Protein 1
Amino acid sequence: GSVLGIVGGGQLGRMSAIAAARLGYRAHILTTEADGPAAQVAHAITLGRYDDHDALRRFADAVDVITFEFENISADGLDLLSSIRPVHPAGHILRISQDRIAEKMFMAENDIPVAPWRGVHDRADLDRAAKDLGYPFILKTTRLGYDGKGQARIHDASGLDAAFDGLRPHPLVAEGMVRFACEVSVMVARNAHGEVVTFDVTENRHRNGILDISLAPARIAPELAARAQDLARRIATALDLTGLLGVEMFVDRDGSLRVNEIAPRPHNSGHWTMDACPVDQFGMHVRAVTGLPLPPASRHSDAVMKNLIGPEDMALWPEIMAAPRLLAHHYGKAEARPGRKMGHVNVLFPKGALPGEFGVEAALGPLARALDDA
Ligand code: ATP
Ligand code: MG
Ligand code: MG
């Protein structure tokens, strides 16, 4: 049999299912959204909540190997799935990536640099963290944050109470603010035979806490890029990863790298690979979790990726469709709520010809307008 089970029905599940189909696998999606992005392109097993163990069991019985795009399945649910079928990446990796403190402790054990941090369990901890880290610093929930939700920047002592009260009762972590030159990420894949490949380093720009634009390759020194890839490779190996993992990093102004967080699944900042690489992150992911050898993560073009977010960007969809340079990807979401990721576009350039600021804008055609008010 060759059925890939994917937990989670969003756009990452959709694009993974399409990559699976290309390789001759069927995909079964476990999802709470009967007509969501992934359910539209593959067989869906729907459930009301991800802790419905009967549904988890039915799903696991129907597939050969399980992966996920939804990261917040409970430890119990994971154990259940793992008792029935192989789950890749394995549960111990998900448990680390689900919890920012577990993640930072893992990095420390493996000599991977991160921003200075303090666990915050009560209000007194927060005062101590402020003293140790200095202002400004960032307070984050340890779990369930995404797109910058579940965090607050604290600029001085007058902001402590509001940040604390706004994020409680969840467990929290305080992080020193990294004064970064830029943000980068690396997609790394590893299979059960220990083969590891890394895609070229991506440079990422956020807007309102949400990834807006990625550039590949990142405009950083080759030596720095090699170090970023080496960090990603070391993380994948130390985790004993089978699958694909996105590693977000800050490039400090002093030239050092600090890992921000990891995501053991295809990553938004890797979407440029869909058009600029012979085997993209989703194909690599499917190959890794199904035990196939990994081809080189090579890149034939430079690329700019822009996310299509909310109703403003989607209002431009007809113009995007009419612009042949824009390689567009639609996620099939019915409703374009503000801040929601609805799709993305890639624009390709010959290798070495990634343009500067104005060129990027010009290449994005109708979407350049959306950049203006950034
Ligand atoms: P994602 O959607 O990437 O999962 P998230 O909600 O998990 O986002 P983070 O990635 O931790 O949150 O933070 C969001 C953004 O906030 C980062 O990409 C970065 O721009 C900024 N940021 C987070 N932590 C720090 C830090 N310690 N120093 C400086 N900037 C930071
Ligand atoms: Mg995150
Ligand atoms: Mg992040």
Protein 2
Amino acid sequence: ADIEKGTYPHFMLKEIDEQPFVMRNIISKYKDDFDKIKLDEDIRRAVMGADRIYIVAAGTSYHAGLVGKQMIENIAEIPVETHIASEFLYNMPLVSENPLFIFLSQSGETADSRGVLVNVKEKGFKTLTVTNVPGSTLSREADFTLHTFAGPEIAVASTKAYTAQMAVLAILAVDTANARGKEMSFNPLQELAIVANAMEVLTDQKEKLEQVARDFLSVTRNAFFIGRAADYYVCLEGALKLKEISYIQAEGFAGGELKHGTIALIEEGTPVIGLATQEHVNLSIRGNMKETVARGASPCMISMEGLDDEGDAVVLPKVHTHLAPLVSVIPMQLIAYYAALHRECDVDKPRNLAKSVTVE
Ligand code: G6P
């Protein structure tokens, strides 16, 4: 059946709003009768047997892969490298003895990712595709598939597929940790339910986020997103969302790298969006924000409850640190949406972009 927008003006807004439901859907699909993680035994074995994981992806999926690397390394303690699909074959890493290749792809059709899949399969390496489209090329050609259960994503700018990918990777990470006999205090199925509620709180703040977009992004030519640790990866995604649909030149930076070049671009009124969801980087990112303000920047701080300060533009409801990226991206998606709307851009079909790039 054709997917309808219903009462929504754009698919993108609809898909942003669907994220809490997607989380609950993922929980139900990955839960067994005893409220434990349900996962294919062969996949479990493949991940367990890997001495190193290589995540390969493009665009927004690549950004999910960066977060996934952190999750798997921190939770399951398996080394992970995340690679841009189109670069992988030019910059082939020295592959470990028992690698597992994970292809992250909403569509399962991205040619750059497929190019890598074909190459590593020839070498006899194990492959797993994490995708929203189980019958897709990458899914059919890999040894294993994990479904992200986000439902069809129509808007070119990816939203719910990104959070769904990270949710599935978190479940995979914990499952692997469990299988390796690690004591886990972190139950991803419970924590994702808390994430779903937090997402709902944020998608209910549309008016406020529209105002943030109006205040910070209505006339600017450029914008910067800064964060550290996992927040940095979400900043890359926040900047990509804004570029894709509003055509504002936006870049995500690691807070500490600002002073090594990018700060030269800060002028009177340049919007700088700061993100702090991780306690160990809260003070340093706030320090970076001050450095930009001293050079004229308009600061827009997004922080997590408990780390918030007076004057922060958006305060995110508290969720587990590992899952903070699933929540902190929501206001960025909405801010990008409203910025594009105010600029009268074609939100669902931005110029020059395709939903899925099937040429190399
Ligand atoms: C295109 C889309 C992006 C997407 C990327 C990877 O460039 O415009 O939104 O992130 O492809 O797509 P995939 O389907 O492999 O996740």
Protein 3
Amino acid sequence: MSAPLVLGIETSCDETGVALVRGHELLVDAVASSVDEHARFGGIIPEIASRAHLEAMVPTIERALTTAGVTLGDVDAVAVTAGPGLVGPLTIGAAAAKALAIGLDRPLYGVNHVIGHAVVDELVDGPFPERVLALVVSGGHSSLLRIDGTVHVTELGSTLDDAAGEAFDKVGRLLGLPYPGGPHIDRLARTGDPDAIRFPRGLTAPKDQAKHATDFSFSGLKTAVARWVEARQDAGEPVPLEDVAASFAAAVADVLTAKTIAACRREGVSTLVVGGGFSANSQLREMAAERCAAAGIELRIPPIRYCTDNGAMIAALGSAVVRRGMRPSPLDLPVDSSMPL
Ligand code: KG4
Ligand code: ZN
């Protein structure tokens, strides 16, 4: 008998994602994005995102079904992001998922978006070993997770202030780059000198009051970049954008990879999964590849389209939850904008 067909719905931010997964196989991943509608505001406007999800939901579900060559009747279970995320957008995804679950008389599974960013890797690189560490880095989160049996998650650390992508976007704004600044800084950094400016690495000194050994902090680094740039401007000197970008990106990648690899060693884990939109970052990818190779750690980073928000991550996690026979969610499943792991 073939594995259950799971339809996954993701609407936590500005991407409407609908995907179909059977076992570890991705049948289709349909995404509609409202990112362009937010660009002129320099950040996501929740009301605009909610309206866009509402308009895109039914066409995206239809597109996913047609592309996969299945009908709604073939769907065995419905998975949806229950949080964390923007409450309006989450509510629209949950309403669609509940309507499908009720209409089709199929179980509903509310799942955690952050865990989905890691588990989507199973669709690309195959089933997880019994225990993996996952670094989930995006505009909304920077978390280090230990994952046992694909679905049991322990948070080993997270950011105490800005997420990695958020710090890039804020530094992008202060350098006068368009929103979101992350990819622009990455592009500039490629031609800059990462050793030109020694920016601080947050939360690395023993006196730092982190909750966990692998907590991160990027707001001090962001302030250090702002001060450095202001000092140059006050002195009437040009700001070497490429060097600032490269040195800033190096500081972020250094902290993320050093702490993550130390955690792998501490936990005795030999597989690291990196997910979330920020895993597109070149310096993070390069440093993680080098340092994992040196430490004998297998590094799994899915292709970028599965690192940014999408339905495949939710369908993958839903499929794992269904496979393990976990209990479905109630049909009045609440959404939780700050859902814990
Ligand atoms: O996962 P994602 O698409 O949305 C969130 O859930 O946040 O992540 C987007 C974040 C943004 O902050 C964006 O600037 C950042 O990831 N980002 C990058 C790069 N590509 C995307 N930051 C640095 N370098 C990149 N190449
Ligand atoms: Zn995300």
Protein 4
Amino acid sequence: CGVFGIYHDNKAASGVYMGLHALQHRGQEGAGIAASDGTHLRCYKGKGLLTDVFRPEDLEPLTGNNSIGHVRYGTAGGDEIENVQPIVARSGIGSIAVVHNGQIVNSLELKEELEEKGHIFHGSSDSEIILHLIQGRKGSLLEKIKAACVRLDGAYTFLILTEKNMYAIRDKNGLRPLALGRCGDGYCISSETCAFDMVDAEYIRDVEPGEILKLSARGLQSTFYTEERRQNICAMEYIYFARPDSNIEGLNVHMMRKKTGTILAGKDAELNADMVVGVPDSSLSAAIGYSEASGLPYEMGLIKNRYVGRTFIQPTQSQRDMGVRLKLSANTSVVAGKKIVLVDDSLVRGTTSRRIVRMLKEAGAGEVHVRIASPQILYPCFYGVDTSTREELISSRMSLEELQSFLHADTLKFLCVEDLQEAYGETGCCFACFDGRYATDLYSYGRKK
Ligand code: 5GP
Ligand code: SF4
Ligand code: MG
């Protein structure tokens, strides 16, 4: 998912709309915006792409200087409208809207506990839990939020909007990205820095793991909900999820992908090929890195149809298969008779690579050498990226040789975790889907592992 907020800037909701537009790649199943004018908090949301959900007149009632928004990529909970965010509660302490990116790993346990106490959940997603944890506690809202965060385990960034204030929260492992910017005389907060340009905001810094920012009439106030903090940003953000023009923890996503392409090329000193082809769009940076390092020309061997969105995010396998077919075509005149290095960013279920190797061969390619700019994905993610169950992860079912023949590739290579560490330097990352070393306890999810 993607979250975006603006505090203290006029037309906050239209700014949030712009920001969400730049975050659309982070989720296509739903979109919503809440805004507050100091007295009233209003919300509008719906299923689908941002541009499908919002007509210009839907933004008009969302008046006020403070606003938060969300684009949804469902990993926990179904696709019912109740799970589309912001989630708004009208409680004794006033109205509260919340947006969430990530996944709470102890959500089942917390829900059971809360339901036993009489709480009634509106939807099936895990994002609502924070609202329930806040209720019924004593003290200021900031104190309540802190106490709630201590109970939540897993990956989360939250933006919380009340009638007057806004809060931004990042989990103590910093699993999902969140950045703070200056926007006019106010602030903006975004899952990715690429959205700052949309509202002419200036990047200030990343929100730190375990940090809670309170934005109020008193300005910006920073506190931490725990002493145990680690930087453990999701490596898949760099590999696939984030936009190449975003910087995460100070590192530019495109440059990091290029580095992984360079490292792949370093393993291929002996390979005799004619050209490098990337799988648009997510692997283009890595393919450029490979091309520069190897001296092989980068070619447009695959063309992407602009009118198809991210295929992986589609919920069923048949939709994903159809998606790849609709999305990508081989450029026959370029690839016929050629030996091709095909670079993709990741291999999850194998849908994309298998289909593309076939496409290139049908277009007359002589050899196709598949190079994946990440390690083999062997373990599921429980932190908000839908790499799904272990059975679906093709690398956990097949040996490298089996995989190579399944893909009909002439050769096949991956990076290893050490290669990624080399690329990312000092930045602490989560690599759990590659090495199974999860940053948190997995609670009931652990049984499915
Ligand atoms: P596969 O087709 O092997 O199942 O998935 C890999 C392809 O899907 C790559 O082209 C990658 O860019 C894309 N991909 C999409 N979404 C995700 C996601 O959430 N995780 C990952 N790893 N890859 C995705
Ligand atoms: Fe990211 Fe993988 Fe860690 Fe999930 S398990 S947070 S996808 S690195
Ligand atoms: Mg891709």
